[in-house]
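Example 9 (inverse folding). The structure is encoded as follows.
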């Protein structure tokens, strides 16, 4: 698990995506693409790596996919991510996100 997380965070685009998600809100892939200067296919691949590492969750919203940091990060893993991002992460509560999912 820790190796997958470190590998996922070692790539600059994924690290920057995590910095954007650290505000605790959902971000659609279109927003991540625009802010990070990535194509849709490239951004989707990066987000899949973050998802497989257990760092993010996704939710389909019409034609877009929205991402957020997983609320199930262990405290030690959250501290590791915060150290890599050099900033605290905000994690949306699961119940609040479930309401958004409808």
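The amino acid assigned to each position is listed next.
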């Amino acid at each position: 698990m820790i190796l997958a997380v470190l590998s996922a965070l070692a790539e600059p685009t994924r690290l920057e995506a995590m910095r954007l998600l650290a505000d605790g809100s959902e971000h659609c892939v279109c927003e991540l693409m625009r802010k990070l200067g990535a194509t849709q296919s490239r951004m989707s691949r990066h987000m899949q790596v973050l998802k497989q590492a257990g760092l993010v969750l996704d939710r389909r919203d019409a034609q877009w996919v929205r991402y957020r940091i997983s609320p199930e990060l262990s405290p030690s893993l959250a501290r590791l991510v915060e150290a890599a991002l050099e900033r605290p992460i905000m994690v949306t509560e699961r119940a609040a996100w479930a309401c958004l999912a409808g």
